[in-house]
Amino acid sequence: MSGVSLAVAPRSEPDHTIAPGEKPEHKPLHQQQQQQSGVGGLMGSLRVIELQLVAFIMVFSISGLVPLLDLVFPAFASTYVIALSRFAFPSHGRVSNAASQEIFHGSKLFRLYVILGTTIGLFLPLAYVLGGFARGDNHAVRSATPHLFLLSFQILTENVISGLSLFSPPVRALVPLLYTVRRIFVIMDWLLDVWLNKSLPANAQLKDIAWDWFGKGLAVANLLYFSINLLCFLIPRFLPRAFERYFKERDEIHSKMSEDQKRPTAAVNKKSQTTEKKVD
Fold first, then answer.
1. Pairwise CA distance, residues 116 & 200, whole Å
2. Can you spell out the DSSP letters for 14-55?
3. Buried b / exposed e across 245-257, counting CB within 10 Å, b at 16+?
């Protein structure tokens, strides 16, 4: 779970269906305009993060700062996820609301944990890259950009598939798992780059030393957080919860289908018994 995906809820459309025999409700023109503008503003606010992520992805891709392997990885992950949703874990086709689509319902402490991960994984690295551009530190920009590129793609993918019933809970749970495993290797390269391949001159100023240690500490913090996130949350808790929910829904559907099949047979048997009694 990336964390930022929690900031964008699954999209939902207002229900305009009319029950049989019910007259459509005519509202004043100004009230309809207010409702339409309110819905448009809400949908626009929900898409702000996604548009920003698309902008980040395009800038990172064109800049040449992302290695070819990391550029190809989102295409591989998306293809693999679609294949899993088609052949391994197809969706049961149950339409549910936004609240029931959530796989893991966390407490307030978990929310703080997510906010911490969003700050460490997205906001601070983004500030580090922008600061590197401003300072002319190409080494810092090149070290942190691949992580930001993959994280942006991960958040965008999570936000897109979270609102689609085409993807089952195991498939949605595997998205952050795949990206987190790959990003851990990218963060390890970032860590080695800032700790071993970068050195300061002997007469470096205090602000340059502080900037250097900020980059080193940020790389260590990202490695620690996402390693803990993978080993202590995604694998032991998030992924099993998704599979449990998936197989529970499948069992409920199978039991309901078996009950529906038994009802016509029971009705036929009852009708035949009634006919026999009348004959007697």
1. 30
2. ------TTPPPPP--HHHHHHHHHHHHHHHHHHHHHHHHHHH
3. bbeebeeeeeeee
* pTM given for the model: 0.77
CA distance readout (Å), 39 to 6, 74, 268:
20, 32, 52
Cβ(232)–Cβ(239) below 8 Å: no
Best CA proximity match to 126, nearest among 55, 192, 44, 47: 55
Q: For the purposes of burial, counting CB atoms within 10 Å of the CB of 197, is it exposed (0-12), middle (13-18) or buried (19 or more)?
A: exposed
pLDDT tens sequence across 223-260: 999 999 999 999 999 999 999 999 988 888 878 877 77
109 or 53: whose pLDDT is higher?
109
Question: H helices within the chain, ranges in order?
Answer: 29-63, 68-83, 98-101, 108-118, 124-135, 138-162, 169-196, 206-229, 239-279
Total residues found in the chain within this entry? 280
- Write the pLDDT tens digit of every residue in 134-145: 999 999 999 999
- Asked if 155 and 57 touch (Cβ cutoff 8 Å), the reply is no
For tokens 């030393």, the residue is 209
